[in-house]
UniProtKB/TrEMBL annotation:
Top-level taxon in the UniProt lineage: Bacteria
Reactions performed catalytically: ATP + protein L-histidine = ADP + protein N-phospho-L-histidine
Family matches, as PANTHER family: SENSOR HISTIDINE KINASE (PTHR43065), SENSORY HISTIDINE KINASE_PHOSPHATASE NTRB (PTHR43065:SF16)
Keyword check for Nucleotide-binding: yes
Organism of derivation: Luteimonas rhizosphaericola
The protein's role, per its UniProt record: Member of the two-component regulatory system NtrB/NtrC, which controls expression of the nitrogen-regulated (ntr) genes in response to nitrogen limitation. Under conditions of nitrogen limitation, NtrB autophosphorylates and transfers the phosphoryl group to NtrC. In the presence of nitrogen, acts as a phosphatase that dephosphorylates and inactivates NtrC.
Chain segments annotated as transmembrane: none
Name listed for the protein in its UniProt record: Sensory histidine kinase/phosphatase NtrB
Domain Histidine kinase: 132-342
Amino acid sequence: MSPPPAFDPALDALVTPVLRADRHGRVVACNQAFARWLGVSQKRLPDQPLVALEAEGDGLRGALQALDEADGSRRLRRVALAFLGGEPRFADVWLTREADGGTLLEAHPVDEFPGEDPTRALPLALSAALKGLAHELRNPLAGLKGAAQLLGRRAGDADSRELVDLIATEVQRLTQLVDQLMSPAPPRPHQPLNIHGALEQVVRLAEQEAGWAVRLVRDYDPSLPPLRGDPDRLTQAVWNLVRNAIQAGAANVSLRTRAEFGVRIGEQVHALALRMEIVDDGRGVPEALAEQIFLPLVSGRADGSGLGLAMAQQVAREHGGSLGYRSRPGHTVFTLLLPLPDGDGDDPPPAADRAAKP
């Protein structure tokens, strides 16, 4: 079989897995060794977003963003790569920027059970369990959708219709999350959005769950420019944070937004960023969990899944941002930093946009 176009035939003869992506971050071709190692046909990889091959974490995205700012090469240890939800393969990865702006990825397979970095230790069994759970949720969600439609026809006042609309919106969002678990797909292209619209959706959810037991305080900066992102993913991430506060016994939860200038997020400095803070007066983060709070399956509650904060951190990374916290009993603050376009609108779109199809 001849190598795919735009790929040096000499590289196709190597026993080392090698892949090439174009300047937009899309796979152009790979050699036979890479295809065999990943367990996929050479013909199926072209046009896939390179970052979509990373099965866990977002090290590839960060490394690609940093290539132009360094010496044109980056090394990542124990990266989990997979094709469309297949079984992950682990490798030390070398990334090299080419003259035409493309990227050459060289993979050196390693032991699939690293045991070094707990943040990458989400078991394959958990992935299978989540897919099984997603499958079981399909029928109840369909039932809820039908019930909401029937209620919508009978709702006679504005308040009732608003509640029915909220149910329908949340059922649709949960259905999309289930679909993502069943059939993982590359991130959707980001779009301009008003972050306060997403926060208002979270406030409505919190009011329905907590009622009068929790006082919700809006402390918004109305001058913030539109954020580029995925509104559903951001709503889910913030709701996870607010719901954690409610379940920690908070009587007051504040949602605060501010513009911040000259912010460093990871290895990049952004001229303008959104600082979103979720502040509560609940019990705080247990000291025993302080170093592990963002790991999957770690929870301070006996009935907790330990997935909410891990998911929120992943959403922050998808948007080129970060999630951190500080906590003591009676005062916990989770801080979400997300880059914003500057006044001239010259900031590049997030990596998820550059990796997605136009």
